[in-house]
Amino acid sequence: MSKSANGPTRQKAPRKPRPSIQPPLETQDGGDPRAALGEIIYTERMRLGISQEELAARAGLDRTYVSGMERGLRNPTFLVLLRLARELAIDPAILVRIEIRKAPTNL
Amino acid sequence: MSKSANGPTRQKAPRKPRPSIQPPLETQDGGDPRAALGEIIYTERMRLGISQEELAARAGLDRTYVSGMERGLRNPTFLVLLRLARELAIDPAILVRIEIRKAPTNL
DNA sequence: TTGTGACTAAGAGTCCGTC
DNA sequence: CGACGGACTCTTAGTCACA
């Protein structure tokens, strides 16, 4: 049945998979920066009085993706942030106007 | 394989492999926004007088990753942008202070 | 000290459908 | 209209060896 019985053979290069996870970031009030971003997007979208679907269409994104961002479940890329800001008619800076701090451990 | 076959060998149209068809974005001068970001990172890093390696270490990133961003080859995520801004001791807004416009199609 | 190609795991982003 | 989930493809995160 099992075959692994002989030779040392292949031990697939132990190329470091993903050992280190970067220190997490949080907002000043201990929240998730993604959630803060979501609130900003929601607020700005409401200001334009358009639906998620409409914003998604304008920005060339998927409707469910915009939904996910507003709920703080997504971590969009630089290019997507720019695209969003553009369609929301705001300066990209507004989307990242988030006060953050280091570790979540203790302080 | 069940699947009534007779017709053209049309392979069951399995999925719609949408290869990301997002409309491209460019800076006002027709450049790549990622390159603009890279310049900003470079400038700010120089201001601190530190090496890519040093910045990478502080931000918990890999040296070659920082290198890639400065050369405009990477499209970092929101969280990476935040982490970078924090270590560069600048407001995240500075990293996205980029004037952009739509597509390169025709104008 | 930095550039670059190659690589794997994870997640970004899309599309379907349901509530 | 929007939340949410599944399944999917392509890109990014993150690392290394070597130029």
From TrEMBL, chains A, B:
SMART domains: HTH_XRE. Residues 41-95 form the HTH cro/C1-type domain. Pfam families: HTH_3 (PF01381). Keywords: DNA-binding. InterPro entries: Cro/C1-type_HTH, Lambda_DNA-bd_dom_sf, TransReg_Diox_bact_type. The keyword DNA-binding applies. The keyword Transcription regulation does not apply. It comes from the Bacteria. GO terms for molecular function: DNA binding; DNA-binding transcription factor activity. Residues 1-34 are annotated as: Disordered. One of its GO terms (cellular component) is cytosol. PANTHER family: HTH-TYPE TRANSCRIPTIONAL REGULATOR (PTHR46797), METHYLPHOSPHONATE SYNTHASE (PTHR46797:SF1). This is Helix-turn-helix transcriptional regulator. It comes from Nguyenibacter vanlangensis.
